[in-house]
Design brief:
single chain; 326 residues; alpha/beta; Rossmann fold; Histone, subunit A; 6-stranded parallel beta sheet; two-stranded parallel sheet; 8 strands
């Protein structure tokens, strides 16, 4: 069996600088960035998901962006299958894949594998989908928590998935993920970017201000005018749901900025907790030379990228460093 190549997986909370570090890494060697972000998969959701700009995308190939329309379903399992193809494509073209993102389930599905899904009855599945779509988000999340005590939380799509699997199979999604797991598509080297809370909060505040100045409200208004439902998957995400609420008159415009910032801080805290717990568990199953590298992201992206590149070289070619391009 051919050993899977060691692949850097840059994780951390929103706003910590993951994309900037990945792009700086791509200046050191030809790379393809695999985005593991459940919000950047939606076409038209650009400003509020902090997608790379056109100049960056023209310079550094990215995969995992603009895959579906808002309101469509896209699972962690589908991401793992798609990402395996993107990784193979990058290698075939002489580029090094690097995975970047803040959606823990996507990363876990790709690196460790998800469960081998049993066949579902199509009729029952459609009935259940109609029922779940009629529920308000908080009620759907409560159902998910009742049916799966280990449900980690998240948006409507994640809650609906947990409910669907539990009711159609008789076992919680977390149970399936433990007992019927397939092997992952890569051998991960986790690079966990962190920041002191005060520094992260400053970056998040600056990001929210930049998004609003760039036309975040106009982006959401255009999506609604195009027929995207206010409760559609994608628009229920952090930032988008606050803008929708404001446009529907349920949130004063003067309160929008702070509402988005509070929601974003909570999201970043959930991400950090998830990654800290998951990466702690991941260490036990990895070789000493690999595992998890927690790295303070206070320095500029170029400095951090240089540190990662040098360490990556030692890990993949212990006897010599990867030559730096001229």
């Amino acid at each position: 069996m051919i050993e899977r190549p060691l692949t850097p997986v840059i994780v951390g909370p929103t706003g910590v600088g993951k994309t900037a570090v990945a792009v700086a890494l791509a200046d050191l060697a030809p790379m393809t960035v695999i985005s593991a972000d459940a919000r950047q998969i939606y076409r038209g959701l650009d400003i509020g998901t902090a997608k790379p700009d056109r100049a960056t995308l023209a310079r550094v190939p990215h995969r995992g962006l603009d895959l579906i329309e808002a309101g469509e379903r896209y699972s962690a399992g589908r991401f793992a299958r798609d990402a395996a193809g993107w990784i193979a494509e990058a290698v075939a073209h002489g580029r090094r894949p690097i995975v970047v993102g803040g959606t823990g389930l996507y990363i876990r599905a790709l690196a460790e594998g998800l469960f081998r899904e049993p066949p579902f009855d199509a009729g029952r599945r459609e009935q259940l989908r109609s029922w779940s779509e009629a529920l308000e988000g908080p009620e759907l999340a409560r159902w998910a928590g009742r049916l799966d005590p280990r449900f980690p939380g998240g948006g409507r799509q994640r809650a609906a998935r947990a409910v669907e699997v539990a009711l159609l199979t008789g076992h919680a999604l977390s149970w399936w993920q433990q007992v019927a797991r397939e092997s992952g598509a890569l051998r991960p080297w986790y690079i966990h970017l962190t920041l002191p809370r005060e520094a992260l909060h400053r970056r998040l505040a600056a990001r929210v201000d930049a998004m609003l100045a760039a036309g975040f409200v106009e982006e959401v208004r255009g999506l609604l005018a195009a027929g995207v439902r206010p409760e559609a998957a994608g628009l229920d995400g952090v930032g988008y749901r606050e803008v929708v609420s404001m446009l529907q008159g349920r949130l004063p415009e003067t309160a929008l900025r702070d509402a988005i910032l509070v929601s974003t801080r909570r999201y970043a805290k959930r991400q950090e907790t998830w990654f800290r717990n998951q990466l702690r568990d991941a260490r036990s199953g990895m070789r000493d030379a690999e595992g998890v590298w927690t790295l303070d992201a206070s320095d500029d992206a170029q400095t951090i990228a240089a540190q990662i590149f040098e360490r990556w070289g030692h890990m993949t070619h212990p006897a010599s460093r990867i030559p730096h391009p001229d």
